[in-house]
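Example 3.2
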Amino acid sequence: MKYLFLVASALALAACGGTEIPAATSAPAEHVETNSERLDAVLAAQSDETKARYQYRHPKETLEFFGIEPGMTVVDTLPGSVWYSGILSQYLGAEGKVIGADYSLDQRRAMGGRYGEEAWIEARQDWPQSWANERNAERADNDAPFAAFFYGSVPDDMVGTADVVLMVRAAHHMHKVEDSGGFFTKAIEDASRILKPGGIVGVVQHRGPESNSDEWALGFKGYLKQSQVITFFENAGFELAGESEINANPKDQPTEEDLVWRLAPTLGTSGEDPELRATMEAIGESDRMTLKFRKPE
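Structure, written as tokens:
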């Protein structure tokens, strides 16, 4: 009762121009995590081995350059357990989706080697389902689910569903057998089919000097010329929406004798030569183009 009397007295004073009543203060607003903070947290949670590659692969800058956000559907070409499907699943969240994409089996045949042998190809037939099942069994409830397909056979229910298609260090193998079956052209066409109107293809690719010969830059050495890649996508109807040097490495200046696999993480030419290995490690990973292409609306 005494409390009510004091409140009434205060109101009366206020009405007469007396003491002002302080405005009520609201509780501090709860912090809403930004996409940048979410991605920081996902990247910080990766293994030390994975984080050691950040200085060369710049995952945060790369994914943000391509405009990837939680809730999106993203296609990851040649998906690994971490690069990029593992990172993407955690970042996109349960409302998003990760779709793995592998080279077509006909391309594998054209590439030859042990991955082109019929026994290997036969065992690979069910990869889309087996890969998705394995990844879905391991993912956390708040991570994006997985699906998969082979280039050359995009499922009808995936057509027009993706926001972004990633081709990270994958185009050289398509390009090197382009003359055998148009595999790079077909993969770009598949990317267009699976993308929504206005969707993005994000390319990160080992970049060779424009001054080197076109024959050297076919892809057998791992490198392509940036001008080659742009021409392929523009011929397929995509527009170049952005170029970035975030994955550039000026220390990598390959001659026509050089393979990209001489560098980390493969270090394939060093053998037992510690001096050569140290030289390659000092260069780091390859110089890479980072290109963003947009499918017309």
